[in-house]
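> tool_call: predict_assembly(chains=two)
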Amino acid sequence: MSGLERHYRWLLRAYPRAYRQYRADEMLETLLVAGETGRRYPSLRESVALVVGGLRARTGVDRLGSPAALRHSALRLTALSLIVCGIALTATPVIWRSWLLLPGASPDAVVAGSLATSGMLLLALAATAWARHRLALVATIGALIASHWRSVVHGQWYVEQWTGVEVRGSRLQALLYLTVDFSVWAIVLAALAMLPLLRTRQPRVTRPWIWFAVTAVVVAVVTPNPLNGWSGGLGQPVVVVAWLMAAIMGATFDVRISVVVGAILLVPTLGALAHTLIGSEAGVGGPGNPAVLLGIMVGMLVTTLAVNRVAARRQVTL
Amino acid sequence: MTKPFAPMREPTYFILAALQDEPLHGYAIVKRAQELSDGRVRLTTGTLYAALDRLAGEEMVRVAEEAVVNGRARRTYELTEHGLAALRAEAARMAAAARVVRDRSVGSPAVTVRTVLA
């Protein structure tokens, strides 16, 4: 086996095993015949094409076949990702109360919030993962009601996490204050993403349980919990790097990645926008200059949308 | 009523065009597409097989023959009736687009005005 063949075989590992079993020999034959005589290493152009092709085969985007199938798949992934986002943003009360059940844990702080919200969102996650979109929509709307009906009815703006101090106002103000809450936007956007899915035929789903593993990892990193010393969340540099990576991956091999990231970015963008519009009136403070942060988020969102537009056309057209 | 064919990207068009005359294997498709496009379309192997997979999924091409060469599988691909219809539809679309410019007479108002101003 020549050095060139060894390099090509290594690059072909980018493709999934089943695809390699069917196609690798044939591709290798073409690569070796097409390769320039005396060349020891694959060209950069060919290497990139093999890696991108392999990743596309792994994500399955190249099997979607039509713009409608791509749209359906992107919406489903967006709804699932937003529900995971919603669970991560509302899971603190569940984690805190579970933590209190452990021996030696003392209730020296208050974590407000409804346990029903996380339960309903988990049900919505399972229903969406198994393509039961009607049930998922009902559970998502249920989660929104469970998390906020009490605060709106009692004119409660918010409860200070850890101290339990309640800030109250009128019902209208409480309703307006909901728009500052990121979890509200995650749930509302998830419900909106589900709406078009109701009209489409439910395709066969593969590995739906994986979404529970994804949720566990996201909650472990983002939600305050004993594993991260009750200081969850992602720093701004992490968010920017993750967005940049997602935009590049979306542009090169799977536009669904940048669609999902765009939808997730919309959550803090809308929250920050509401904060800018009504937050100062409500006396809500936050780190950094809200207008600058909002500008950065809108810029990231617009760039993601532009990437999506170009990439979707390129990746779906025959 | 038959569904109209969606516009194709240039590499896809030349892959189908390469298969018009006879069934070809992977490398022969790459060479033929390059010849037909005057060197403009230089397909990489990764791009070629991704396109062939999609075209086979759309039933525009199919495997005509499988052989073993140098101990490795070599498949030969051929155009289907559906693929040939899609190729002709794309050619007609491009010809119609070209006519818009080509059939414009030299003495048309815009050209005349520009000539006078110059």
